[in-house]
Amino acid sequence: MAIAGIHLILTSLVSLRDTCAIFSTARTLFPPSFKSAWKSGEAWTEAVLGEGGKFYGGSVLTYLHAAGIESGYGFFAPNVPDNYKMIFDFEFPDGHHESDIPVVSSETAGLRLAGFMDQLADTAYAPLQEAMVRVVSASAVARHIGATKARVAVGVARLPNPTEYGRGERESYDPFLVFDFTFPERENRQ
Predict the structure, then answer these.
(1) Which pLDDT does position 77 carry in this prediction?
(2) Which of 37, 48, 124, 164 is 20–30 Å from 171 (CA)?
(3) SS3 helix, strand, coil % of the chain, rounded to 5?
(4) Distance CA 146, CA 135 (A)
(5) Confidence (pLDDT) at 110
(6) How many Å apart are CA 47 and CA 122, to the nearest integer?
(7) Phi, psi of 11, deg, nearest 5
């Protein structure tokens, strides 16, 4: 009975930690001034769970991982990401352009790409964003062998409200990242 009680307490603490983490970073109905309280709640639950590695943290974390409750027990469903779109525009030496989008080989890869796009949007460090975009762009670059320049644009969907939709407006994408790449080694071959 005591073990079941401890398990329930730990599960509740993980849920509380995840809830505070979501409320401290996401847009909610709570005023922005509450964010510091949510961050304090998250820090408190992490301390109680021993996530800093102090005191009994190692044994608690081992149990949380072994029991499968270290994550995924937030009160709310997983944060549904925004709808992102990545477009490649390749420029060739003769001046013509070709557009492309990321290509995935399976539904699983598509889910990974969606998760990647969400992480890309959450990354605030521009050099890291550029490196992430370069990695995803590699296969598209390989498909456009003669291109000497590429522009990669990442946009987030702006969905129309019901009134706008009734007027015929449809979703549009507002770019939030644009990177220009050149391929000097290709220019030298021309």
Answers:
(1) 52
(2) 124
(3) 50, 15, 30
(4) 19
(5) 87
(6) 25
(7) -60, -40
Which regions of the chain does DSSP assign to beta strands (E)? 84-91, 97-100, 149-158, 172-182
The per-residue b/e assignment along 132-142, b for 16 or more CB within 10 angstroms, e otherwise, is bbeebbeebbe
User: What does the radius of gyration of the chain's CA atoms come to, in whole angstroms?
Assistant: 23
Q: What angle do CA 107, 79, 10 make, to 5 degrees?
A: 110
pLDDT of residue 79: 56
Return the structure tokens found at 176: 């939030």
Q: Residue 71 contacts by C-beta under 8 Å, 6 or more apart in sequence? A: 14, 18
Q: How many residues can be counted in the chain?
A: 190
Per-residue confidence (pLDDT) for residue 160, from 0 to 100 = 86
Two tokens at 188? Answer: 């030298």
Distance between CA 45 and CA 41 in Å, rounded? 6
d(CA 166, CA 177): 30
Per-residue confidence (pLDDT) for residue 153, from 0 to 100: 93
Low-confidence stretches of the chain (pLDDT beneath 50): none
180/151 Cα distance (integer angstroms):
4
What is d(CA 143, CA 129) in angstroms, rounded to the nearest whole number? 22
What confidence score (pLDDT) does residue 53 get?
Answer: 57
Structure tokens at 92: 């060739």
Pair of tokens at residue 63: 């149990």
Q: Strand, coil or helix: what is 54?
A: coil
